Amino acid sequence: MEEKTAVSRNFIEQIIDTDLAEGKYETICTRFPPEPNGYLHIGHAKSILLNYGLAKKYGGRFNLRFDDTNPTKEKTEFVDSIIADVKWLGADFEDRLFFASNYFDQMYEAAVKLIKKGKAFVCDLSAEEIRAYRGTLTEPGKESPYRNRSIEENLELFENMKNGMYEDGAKVLRAKIDMASPNINMRDPVIYRVAHMSHHNTGDKWCIYPMYDFAHPIEDAIEGVTHSICTLEFEDHRPLYDWVVREVGYEHPPKQIEFAKLYLTNVVTGKRYIKKLVEEGIVDGWDDPRLVSIAALRRRGFTPESIQMFVDLCGISKSQSSVDYAMLEYCIREDLKMKRPRMMAVLDPVKLVIDNYPEDQIEYLDVELNLENPDLGMRKVPFGRELYIDREDFMENPPKKYFRLFPGNEVRLMGAYFVKCVSFEKDEAGNVTEIHCTYDPETKSGSGFTGRKVKGTIHWVAAKSALRVTVRLYENIIDESKGVYNEDGSLNLNPNSLTVLNNCPVEPAFADAKPYDSFQFVRQGYFCVDAKDSREDALVFNRIVSLKSSFRLPKAE
Ligand code: ATP
Ligand code: MG
Questions:
Q1: Which of 113, 271, 283, 488 is the most buried (most CB within 10 A)?
Q2: Which atom of ligand 1 is nearest to the CA of 269?
Q3: Which residue's CA is minimally distant from atom 25 of ligand 1?
């Protein structure tokens, strides 16, 4: 048993176990370090839940830290949305909400320390020159002519940089490491640049800003982060990360660990692409339910529990792969199926008239809210002479094995009676406009009637008391069967990604539905009240997911 638990630990947990066993750290601290330049997406959710989950499992701390060292793209709108998303996911950072920009003083001091150690120098080469001097994967780089400036001169020039004496790009501070290193990141990387820009937090206090590779390890070290988890593209930057914490001289250096990014098939996750869809008006904002930003998933009706389940199923790995969107759908179905009521809504209505049912009679039938979970209780569903059923539940000339309504056939109206189709009407175009039935009062659901059986059960909504709602159906926004991109580099959009159905009759019990409430619509899937576009008297439902899926959980070995 013991052995099995050890084996089932992911590679990050194994590293942590070893570090704790060897006494490298007493307790662990992780962080989620978003750059506030967009909304978070499902990939970030994986990182958040991974970092938070580890802290929780080991009784450690989890920090939320904005990596806001880059003053150009950052917006407070993004800061607010990120905080809301992290909280919604349940990743509790308690009072540990940090901003990297609050450490600018310490970063400056760290840079001065490196200069004093002879480990950093001010360089006057232009960006292009620096690139040209850097060398390639097969050729070593060339040393900057400014590399051997004296410590005094470097201190003075760096201070001048800070004091605004140079134009953007005129001078940079570089780490003095090794221009011949096989790792290009180690070839005297730039660690500070001049940028005369206002920062959302520090205003105009600074006109020099630290580069990511220098700032990030310092941020981690200041906060006492022990395991700094990031994605694979930073693997080659790890030697620089280690160099910075070592040379600046932190006592308990944090450790960088990389894992593979989460990618989903048929959906766009990159901030850049989502931004493009938003800016071009192709979607209705960052929270358009077709996107997989966390805000969009929440609006669509996904729950934090379903996202946690998804992330757990994906697991943690070092190799890049793409996960089927169907797995995310599987998780929300699993989460909602026992929790949420199953009610009747007709998305493509056609009138059904019960000829032998009293004209003005209304009956209130007792129907279970969730067949699989009796704890949810019952609801009253009004029944009357005129109903709506779904157009696809009637056929004039049915194929074999069609058990729903057709002339002469008898079916059960869900939770109500058997009805038999006696006639129907069509318009000039040949569309069925009205179906006539007779009902058998003996066959009421729950009455114990056993006289005869029918093969089909169809759902319905009583016409008179029906509430009318708008329903939105979604498909993937990218048609991946044809490739994510067109030849001209534009995204290959699926023209059918959104279908809007107006005036759909639904049970009156929906009247109490609130934003973010979700329901199973019989046979149609799970739907959620749209929090942005719904009004009390005009509900809009987004389909979260249909009921059927081709996705199967892989069998446990
Ligand atoms: P994007 O590439 O989508 O714009 P990003 O990496 O620029 O995302 P950051 O705000 O810099 O976004 O990332 C915050 C954290 O989230 C980082 O630790 C990053 O590694 C992690 N992260 C970003 N995308 C994913 C993903 N697809 N899967 C897992 N973790 C991710
Ligand atoms: Mg980024």
A1: 283
A2: 3
A3: 43
Report the nearest atom of ligand 1 relative to the CA of 233: 20
Residues 42 and 505: their CA atoms lie apart, in Å, by 34
Sheet holding 120-123, edge to edge: 120-123, 172-175, 190-194, 208-210
Tens-place pLDDT, residues 163-186 = 999 999 999 999 999 999 999 999
pLDDT at 507: 97
Per the CB < 8 A criterion, the answer to whether 301 and 527 are in contact is yes
The token duo for 345 is 């809504």
Instruction: Quickly count: other Cβ atoms within 10 Å of residue 234's Cβ.
Output: 19
Q: How far is the CA of 462 from the centre of ligand 2 (A)?
A: 53
Q: For 293-320, write each residue's pLDDT tens digit.
A: 999 999 999 999 999 999 999 999 998 8
Which residue minimizes the CA distance to atom 16 of ligand 1? 44
Neighbours of 150 (CB within 10 A): 10
Question: In this predicted model, what pLDDT tens digit does every residue of 122-162 receive, in sequence order?
Answer: 999 999 999 999 999 999 999 999 999 999 999 999 999 99
Rg (CA), the chain: 31
Please indicate, yes or no, whether the overall pTM of this predicted structure exceeds 0.85: yes
- From ligand 1's centre to the CA of 232, what distance in Å? 10
**Is the CB of residue 257 less than 8 Å from the CB of residue 229?**
yes
**Distance of alpha carbon 144 from alpha carbon 444, whole angstroms:** 89
CA 133 / ligand 2 centre spacing (Å): 26
Q: What is the Cα–Cα distance from 118 to 175, expressed in whole angstroms?
A: 9
477 Cβ closer than 6 Å to some ligand 1 atom: no
Contact predicate 469/539, CB 8 Å = yes
CA–CA separation, 534 and 514 (whole Å): 9
